[in-house]
Specification:
Elements lengths: L2 H10 L3 H31 L4 H11 L2 H8 L12
């Protein structure tokens, strides 16, 4: 980061430590989203849910979609008798 950028950050009241924390947070969110992008369709397939829908949910809501799919009940297969 050059001096001009550091001066702009200082004018905005942002320290280099705060910027480093922000970068760490963004990196962690990106990693969590990639994990969700892999795990959510896998769980959807195991629960016999629409994988395309759940991939879209990850793209829209990130890791929250992984939490949501954990609470969605598995779809019953049509071979099982309905009560």
């Amino acid at each position: 980061m050059n001096d001009e950028q550091l001066q702009l950050l200082t004018q905005l009241g942002i320290s280099q430590a705060e910027l480093a924390q922000f970068e760490l947070l963004i990196g962690a969110l990106l990693v969590a989203t990639v994990v969700a992008l892999v795990a959510t369709p896998w769980l959807a397939r195991r629960k016999q849910l629409n994988r395309g829908f759940w991939i879209l949910m990850v793209l829209l809501f990130g890791p929250l979609a992984l939490l949501a799919i954990l609470f969605v009940p598995a779809k019953q297969s049509s071979a099982e008798p309905q009560p």
